[in-house]
Amino acid sequence: MDPITDQAVQEYHRLLRHEKALSQEIEERFLDRMREAKMTFGGRVLCPFPRPHFVSPAIYEEIRGVCRGIFRAIEKVESRLGRDLWDRVDLTPEERELVAIDPGYRRLSPTARLDSFITDRAYQFVELNAETPAGNGYAEVLAEIFLDLPLVKEFQKRYSLRRFRARERLLETLLSCYREAGGKAEKPVIAVGDYEEVPTRTEHHFFREFFESRGYPSLVCDPRHLTYEKGRLRHLGQGIDIVYKRLLVNEFLDKISELQAFLQAAKDRAIVMVNPFRCKPIHKKAIFAVLTDDELQGLFTDEERAAIRAHVPWTRRVGEGKVKRYGETVDLPEFIRNNRAGLVMKPNDEYGGKGVFIGAEMSDPQWEAALAEALRSSYVVQEKVELLRMTFPELGPELRFRDLVVDLDPFIFDGEVEGFLTRLSGTSLANVTSGGGQVPAFLIAPR
Questions:
Q1: How far apart are CA 346 and CA 354, in angstroms?
Q2: Residue 59 clears pLDDT 80, i.e. is over it
Q3: What pLDDT is stored for residue 1 in this prediction?
């Protein structure tokens, strides 16, 4: 933590511990505020932590530079390797058919999220969400709630807080893709598309409300309920121009027989879909195995190599045979077997912490069984990141302070960072699906 944010945290905690009226208001009203604002995920309050995460301008610019380098390197390997990348990241035949669909615009992943953990040394990016990065809408509503708290208003007498423009950048990105693809409507209709039973449904409506507040007709729809007639994709008769796709490719393929109208509209370019299906190769977790591959380092500039070396842990697809690790040849299964404490194995294409094996938290027999499963499936192995825990207040039966893992995930729009998803957890899996929570992040400066 840098000095500016360290001092800010101390001041915020001082107010919470010693200003009784402020702390009482938090204990009595904070969780009710969250429920009133529909800040829930799968029925539970998303944010029980009454402190934001603070980021200084200097650290923010450093993060932006690192992410710019890593994202540029990812786009470069896709451009240079072409279909060879599909093999390297283990794209399935069904995924290859979807990836081949031309979305009408250039960028693979116009809106993405690089997921990182804060460590003692640096931010460590462990995967890229290039398909449907969630959390942006929640983060913006959380920022509004926090800025209205009496505690935060008192805190701002000594520190200024600046919110990010992630929602605005998302809308700008959707419209940019639409124009690049040849869209002509002055106010295109935007549909937020995902299955109606998903736990993030509330966030979809946050986006609808925001798009409408900016003058763009919007709706939330389940893609199974769309119709496609005479070159127009519709929901309950309403024509659609842009689909902000929150549906993962895996989930799409699971129900593809029910999604033929949506699929045909995408093939015919009757809609502009963001993100496109062709983002799938760089969404696979094996993309980090490509970035850290010794034989591919010549593809990158000195700046890109430095960003990868400092901020991307060594990663490989799990399989039989030998691989390079920092110039040394190792038998991969044997290396995994003998280095349990320093490794993590996770599915090549999954989310929410599903199927993740953390070696340091398993016994030797459990790790051996995990390795056997990984060898049968599509998995990656990655060097374990040493997590830094930070103190946050938490509301339960009473207010308490806990040391929590911080997952700081920059949102990327057209290759540039704007804002963060900040998740907190008591375990090594700092994601909301696995029971973590979310807080807003602000740029901070002393007054």
A1: 8
A2: yes
A3: 61
**What was the pLDDT predicted at 117?**
84
Structure token pair of residue 239: 């024509």
**Among 115-124, 134-143, 148-157, 351-360, where is mean pLDDT lowest?**
115-124
Enter the pTM of the model.
Answer: 0.93
Q: What are the pLDDT digits (tens) for 195-209? A: 999 988 999 999 999
Whole-number pLDDT of residue 391: 94
Q: What are the tokens at 384? A: 């374990």
Burial classification of residue 5, based on how many CB atoms lie within 10 Å of its CB (0-12 exposed, 13-18 middle, 19 or more buried): middle
- Alpha carbon distance 74, 368 (integer Å): 32
Predicted confidence at residue 434, as pLDDT, reads 47
For residue 309, give both structure tokens.
């070396």
Q: CA-based angle 6:12:13, to the nearest 5?
A: 90
The reported pLDDT for the residue numbered 397 is 84
